[in-house]
Amino acid sequence: MLAVALKNKPLWILLLVLFFLATWSPTGTFVEFPKYWHDEAFAMEQARTFLELGRLDFIVAPNTPSGMAIALSANGPPLSIPLAGVFYLFGIGLLQARVYMLFWLIAVTIAVYLFLKKTFDTPSAVAGTLLMATFASFYANGRTATGDIPGLFFCVIALYFFVHKRQYAWSGIFFALAAVTKTSAFHMALPAAGIVLLFFEKKLFFLPAIRFGTGALLVILMWFLILLPYPYSLSDLTPLIEFYQNPTHKASLLEQFSGGIPSLLFSSTIGYFGILALIVFVAFFKSRRTMSDAQKRVYVFVATYAVLQAIVFLRSPGWIRYLVALEIFILMLLFPALSALAPSKKISYALVGFLAGFQFAHYLSFSNILPRADITPHVAALNQLLDEHTGSTIGFIDNLMTSAFIPSSKKFNYIHFGGSTAGAHPFTLPQEEWPDFMDSIGPEYAHIQEYFYEPFYLSDGEIVFRKK
Which UniProt keywords apply (predicted)? Predict the structure, then answer.
C-alpha cells in the first residue's frame, strides 16, 4: 500500500493538509488539543498495564487488574497493544500517545485515497480524502488515543477485500478487527456486511458466508482470549452483554431512545450530514444501473451500516461520536454522487471545494473541540511524591485520566462507568490497607479525612491528602 501511495502526487498534497491540521493547536501546544478525556485514559491505562503486567486491563489495587476490561474498555487490543510498544520504546506519556495516533491518521488517509481510486477514479479519491481531511471530527477522534480511526482503517481494508477481491475470509478478519478496536462504532459493520453478502451472493451465499464468519470468528475469539481473565467462563461476558442491551441503564426501551432523539432532531452536525446523505441516496438511485458491482456493494454497505448504526446512536445518550465513521463514509461517497447529479464536473469540483473550505474554517475557528491544560506537570509532581516516599500508594476516585500515568504497583482505582463500577472505594477496605495518599476523598468520607488524612501540597501547587 505504501509503495503505491508514494507514486500518487495528489496524495502527498493531501497528506500535507492532514499533517498541518493534525498538528495544529489553538494554544500552540500539541498535547492540549483536542482535550485529553476518559476514553483516551482507558486506552493508555490498558497499554500501561499490558506493558507492566502483561494484561490488557486497568488497575483497581496495586498490581491488581479489574477483570472487567472487556465490558468497560472503549477501545480494543489493536489500538492498545501497539501503544504499549510505543510506551516501551519512548516512555509513557500523552505526547507519545498523540504522536502514535498521527501514524494511524496517515494510514487511514492513504487507505481511503487508494480505496476510492480503485472503486471510482482519481478525482473521487482526491475529493473524498480532502473532505475527510478537513473534517473536524476526524481529528477530534483521531488525534486522541481512541479506536475510531484505527477501526476505520480496518473497515476500509475490509471493504477492499469485500468488494474488489471477494476474499471473504480476509474481509471478515478486518471487519472484526474494526469491531474489536472500537466496538461501539463498528460492531454493526459485521451484520451490515453479512446483509450485503446475502443480497449480492444469493445463489452462492453459504460458502462465502462460512468464509466470512470464520475470519470474523477467529478475531473475536482472540479478543476474548486477550481480554477475558478466564476465557472459558461465559459469566465474564455478562457485563458486556448487559451494556449493549442497555448502554444507558434506562428502565424501558423508550427511555433508552430518549438520549439520541433530541440530538437527531436538533444537532447541526446531523442536519449537515443528513443533507449530504440525501444527495448520496438520490445519486445512487439515479445511476445504479450504470454502476459497477463493486460500487453498488459499497453504497449498499454504507446504507445498511447507516440504518444499524443509527439504532446504536439513538440508544446512546446522544453521543455524536458513534456516527463519526458513518459521516466519513458519506464524505467519501459525496463526489461520485455529485458527479452523477450535477450538469458538469466543474460544478462538482466547486461544491467539494466549497465544502472543504467550509470544514477547514470550521475546524480552525468554530468547532467545539476544546483544549485542556497539559496534565504533564501534575503527573510529574505525583510521581515525584511517590518516588520520594518509597513503597507508598495513592488512591484515585473516578480519575483514570490521572492514574493512567501512575505505575501499576502504586495505585488504587475506583471507577464508575455508566451503571457499572470497577474496584472498591479504598476506605471500604481494612484500615491497614488504605492508600498512603488520596488524590481526592469526597464529602461522603469527610469524617475519615478529618481524623485520618491531612492536606499535602505537591510541587506543582496542587493538593492531595496524606495519611496521618
Answer: Cell membrane, Glycosyltransferase, Membrane, Transferase, Transmembrane, Transmembrane helix
